[in-house]
Amino acid sequence: MTDAVFETERLVVRRLRDSDLSDLMAVYGDAEAMQWVGDGQPITENECREWLVVTHRNYEKRGYGMFAVELNAAPGVIGFCGIVHPGGQEEAEVKYAYLRKFWGQGIATEALCGLIGYGTRAHEITRFIATTAPENSASHAVLSKAGMRRGELRQNEDGSFTQLFEYEAPKSAA
Fold first, then answer.
1. Degrees to nearest 5, angle at CA 48 with 43 and 53
2. CA spacing 20 to 30 A to 123: which of 3, 61, 142, 171?
3. In whole angstroms, how far apart are CA 4 and each of 11, 31, 68, 118, 147?
4. Matching Pfam families, A to Z (predicted)?
5. Which range of residues forms the domain containing residue 151?
6. CB–CB of 169/125 below 8 Å?
7. What is the mean pLDDT of the chain?
8. Strands, DSSP E only, in 42-169?
9. Which one, of 172, 118, 111, lies nearest residue 143 by Cα?
10. Three-state SS for 18?
11. For residue 94, which of 72, 133, 64, 121 has the smallest C-alpha distance?
12. Tally of domains in the chain
């Protein structure tokens, strides 16, 4: 049985494996890339190990979570995308992060379009959200190209802001 979840023209998106730990570290341990993720800090190896445990739990509970992204033409993880419910939130949230050398090639948009299609078809999710830093114009472009629309600007408890993006599946898609 394959662990591939879906494929696009250039990509294979698959379930995470324990052996992906070093790839998680390469992406989420990159301080420059992580300026746009969570608290803006790279995550540790122990946090990556815990992430794998949580992801496998999500697969069991929901059938989805974070996934590894590979190029069809070459082996090796280039990044991650997934559907998550951070902090137990009800809304399905799409997330992604890639090695910096793959930024600006349309990969995030391609994977996100595939991810939304997968979520609507395989899991009948009709609404997705994404959250970004208000100044992260590159992610705003990715989300817009994938069919998400800019929503409200949310104020966080610490006084900072988060830009919301939303996607509603057409009635015939789910």
1. 145
2. 142
3. 10, 29, 9, 12, 24
4. Acetyltransf_3
5. 4-168
6. yes
7. 90
8. 66-71, 77-84, 92-98, 127-132, 149-155, 161-168
9. 111
10. helix
11. 64
12. 1
What is the value of pTM for the model shown?
Answer: 0.91
Q: Using only the alpha carbons of the chain, give its radius of gyration.
A: 15
Interval 20-33: pLDDT, tens:
999 998 988 877 77
The CATH number that applies at residue 143 is 3.40.630.30
Q: For residues 126 and 22, give the distance between their C-alpha atoms in angstroms, rounded to a whole number.
A: 34
Of 112, 162, 114, 116, the residue nearest 136 (C-alpha): 162
> Residue 1's pLDDT is what?
43
Tokens of 61: 């509970």
Residue 173 lies in a domain: no
